[in-house]
Automatic annotation (TrEMBL):
<comment type="function">
    <text>Catalyzes the conversion of GDP-D-mannose to GDP-4-dehydro-6-deoxy-D-mannose.</text>
</comment>
<dbReference type="GO" id="GO:0008446">
    <property type="term" value="F:GDP-mannose 4,6-dehydratase activity"/>
</dbReference>
<dbReference type="InterPro" id="IPR036291">
    <property type="entry name" value="NAD(P)-bd_dom_sf"/>
</dbReference>
<protein>
    <submittedName>
        <fullName>GDP-mannose 4,6-dehydratase</fullName>
    </submittedName>
</protein>
<feature type="domain" description="NAD(P)-binding">
    <location>
        <begin position="8"/>
        <end position="319"/>
    </location>
</feature>
<keyword id="KW-0456">Lyase</keyword>
<dbReference type="InterPro" id="IPR016040">
    <property type="entry name" value="NAD(P)-bd_dom"/>
</dbReference>
<dbReference type="Pfam" id="PF16363">
    <property type="entry name" value="GDP_Man_Dehyd"/>
</dbReference>
Length: 332
């Protein structure tokens, strides 16, 4: 596509959004970055780069403010990352999850459609879906390809199916230049502590800081995941909007596959404490779970030349260091 001058990131204060902004600032410093954020969103993840960002206060559920923001800045690319992304919470609050993820995405796409008609504005729009849309796959469907059946196993996954299909529909019906990704398990520094890798790392860091007993509480350790670093993911997102074909969907995922239990054992081996025990907490078990997620990323690699660069051990070390720094700052 033509030269990218400015971009808008929805969800810029979140985990992936903050890493994407960081990546673009470092590698494409001439690109002007705008971020959509709600007034109540914590800014911790972007405080270190905030002076180089242009934040816009708005809400995906308020189409009036959203339209004014997009009309004002006319971004060449919109990375739509904002979402209620916690699977467990979606079981407790399915309506809120659907409203945020589905209605919010529909508002965004509808506004772009209106501005295309009114002002011939036609940006690239990245719709961030999720590997959760595939649900519980059969063993003979591994590795999972983009044409695999969608069997969402949580309200969150249902919302992501809807987002995904809205992205396709607005391309098919209105030729809005959407690109959809289905991102598999990813983690790294600043990952929220409700997500399994970060949660385990935080528990271990708390034990090392003598803030907790030497016990890591866990849910289902038998689930199989292919893990990747968020910093590889955001590099993939940039390649997506510069090299890929609108209307298409792409899997993005890592190459190191293991059970959640083996991932935990890696973290424990990195700890300075050698007396850590593992205890199952029934509250951490989901009503339904997705236990086998191994992606085929051939389509995306062929389109962009992307490949994973960061070893997963490095990802885990950096995540553990992030939580060690967190407890050190609390005690200082």
């Amino acid at each position: 596509m033509s030269k990218i001058r400015n971009i808008l990131i929805t969800g810029i204060t979140g985990f992936v959004g903050s890493h994407l902004a960081e990546y673009i600032l470092k590698n494409h410093p001439r690109v002007k970055i705008y971020g959509l954020t709600r007034w109540r969103s914590p800014l911790d993840n972007i405080n270190h780069i905030s002076k180089n960002l242009n934040l816009k206060w708005g809400d995906l559920l308020d189409p009036f403010s959203l339209k004014e923001i997009i009309r004002e800045i006319k971004p060449d690319v919109i990375f739509h990352l904002a979402a209620q992304s916690y699977v467990d919470f979606s079981f407790l609050a399915p309506v809120s999850t659907l409203e945020t993820n589905v209605v919010g995405t529909a508002n965004l796409l509808e506004i772009i459609k209106q501005l295309k008609i009114e002002e011939k504005y036609n940006p690239i729009v990245h719709i961030c879906s999720s590997s959760e849309v595939y649900g519980q796959v059969n063993k003979d469907e591994i590795p999972i390809k983009e044409n695999n059946p969608l069997r969402p196993a949580s309200p969150y996954a249902v919302s992501k199916v809807a987002e995904d299909m809205l992205g396709y529909q607005y391309w098919f019906s209105w030729k809005i230049k959407t690109l959809r990704t289905r991102l598999f398990t990813h983690t790294g520094p600043r990952r929220g502590d409700v997500f399994v890798e970060s949660n385990f790392a935080k528990q271990i860091a708390a034990i090392e800081a003598k803030k907790a007993k030497p016990i890591v509480y866990v849910g289902n350790l038998k689930s199989v995941r292919t893990f990747m670093d968020v910093r590889d993911a955001v590099r993939a997102y940039w390649l997506l909007v510069t090299k890929c074909i609108p209307g298409e969907v792409y899997n993005i995922g890592g190459k190191e596959t293991m059970t959640v239990g083996n991932m935990l054992r890696k973290l424990i081996l990195m700890s300075t404490r050698k007396d850590i025990k593992i205890v199952i907490d029934s509250k951490r078990l989901r009503p339904s779970d997705v236990t086998l997620q191994i992606p085929s990323t051939n389509k995306f690699q062929k389109a962009t030349g992307w490949s994973v660069k960061i070893p997963f051990d490095k990802t885990l070390e950096d995540t553990l260091s992030y939580w060690r720094d967190f407890y050190q700052s609390k005690s200082g």
